[in-house]
Amino acid sequence: MYKVMLLNDDYTPMEFVITVLQQFFSLDTEQATRIMLKVHNEGRGVCGVYPRDIAATKVEQVSAFARRHQHPLACIMEEN
């Protein structure tokens, strides 16, 4: 299993991070806000834990979505 995480940067708006968490990780507003604040305050936050293939797909989807919206939001995965 692999953790999918978002990394903090100084440019991506908090609202965009919440949108990503809701759209790609099916979180409600409260859960998404909690993870967004963790990313903001601690530098990274876990969005979910998935099998390798699903984690890799989520990383690619989030990265492509962020690029399309011209945000430098980084999404990574690491073994759990």
Description:
Helices cover 54% and strands 24% of the residues. The protein has 80 residues and is α+β, with helices and mostly antiparallel strands. The protein has 3 helices and 3 strands, in the order βααβαβ. The mean pLDDT is 98. It starts with a strand and ends with a strand. The radius of gyration is 11 Å and the shape is globular.
> What is the mean predicted local confidence, pLDDT?
98
Q: Report how far the terminal alpha carbons are from each other.
A: 6 Å
Q: Could you say which structural class the secondary elements and strand pairing correspond to?
A: alpha+beta
| Helix content estimate | 40-55%
Low-confidence parts lasting 5 or more residues at pLDDT below 50? none
Describe the largest sheet: 3 strands, antiparallel
Radius of gyration, whole Å:
11 Å
Helix and strand string, N-terminal first?
EHHEHE
The global form is: globular
Beta content comes to 15-25%
Query: What strand order characterises the main sheet?
Result: 2-1-3
Can you give me a brief rundown of this structure?
By secondary structure, the protein is of the alpha+beta class. 54% of the residues lie in helices and 24% in strands.
